[in-house]
Amino acid sequence: MDTGYTRNVHMMRTLSDCGSSAPYGSDEHMVMKKGPWTEEEDSVLINYVNVHGEGLKRTGKSCRLRWLNYLRPNVRRGNITLHEQLLILDLHSRWGNRWSKIAEELPGRTDNEIKNYWRSRVLKQAKQLKCDVNSKQFRDTMRFVWMPRLMEQIQASSSHDHGQTTMFSNTQAHTKPCVTTPTMLSVPSSHSMSSNLMGDGCSFSSSGSLEKGSISTPCILQQKDYSKVEAVEACNDFGGADLWTDENICFLQQLLADD
DNA sequence: AAGGAGGTCAACCGCTGGATG
DNA sequence: CCATCCAGCGGTTGACCTCCT
Q1: What does the pLDDT look like over A83-142, one tens digit per residue?
Q2: What residue segments make up the domains of chain A, in order of their start?
Q3: A117 Cβ partners below 8 Å, 6+ apart?
Q4: I want to staple A133 with a disulfide (CB 3.0 to 4.6 A). Which of A97, A126, A165, A183 is the partner?
Q5: Percent of chain A at pLDDT above 90?
Q6: Distance, angstroms, CA A118 to C1' C17?
Q7: Which residue has the least CA–C1' distance to nucleotide C7?
């Protein structure tokens, strides 16, 4: 039974628990109080209802979701940056659809947003490539082609935007990719970008930073026809925030067809 | 200008596991 | 223990927007 009263109790507990300055997130998890309510808490609740009324005709669940995914002060909105795309690909390759876990590593991004990104971009491209997103073929493509390429683009963009980059800018209205200087590209220290994912082509230092100059040709391409890389690079400047261009898809389709 | 197609993203649904009585 | 509750999670839906014809 979900009475109006319980709905609003839920709502206020939800809002109160989340707090305005201690948002939900990795190391920002607030210690949630459990157990019986104290008289003081009851009093706060009663005062709240006296002032604001019983509130919205919403379930606590709905309010919680709205808060976490939208209203929280530090929620970042807008385009997923190249660096974030890279992290998502890497973390997903390790953790699968553990969206909340992945979101913990992207400050300000919600699991919902990452999930939407994956479904609307990555799955779509897998479909275009006629690959099962869980197939080794597709995973290898991500690992040995897409991710090194993303890093190349991050590096290229950083040299272009030298001195103007930030780790995570507020993307509310940004129109160009927010990138990070490769030397400063930080990866969650608990799990630095694994070299096995990157193949031999690139590496991350033990501190979790991408070492400048460490990016080389993706090994899968070294073994194959490198002229294809030059060809695709010649006709693409990779200037956008996204690698999911038609040209790149064609290139990958060709690559996969050759396997 | 209209409307259809496709993409995006906020919100909802249903399940699960941990907490609580 | 056991039943119940509920927060949190991943999957799915649907409203809205943009682009194309």
Answers
A1: 888 888 888 888 888 888 888 888 888 888 898 888 888 887 787 777 777 777 777 878
A2: 4-71, 82-258
A3: A80, A85, A88
A4: A126
A5: 0
A6: 20
A7: A61
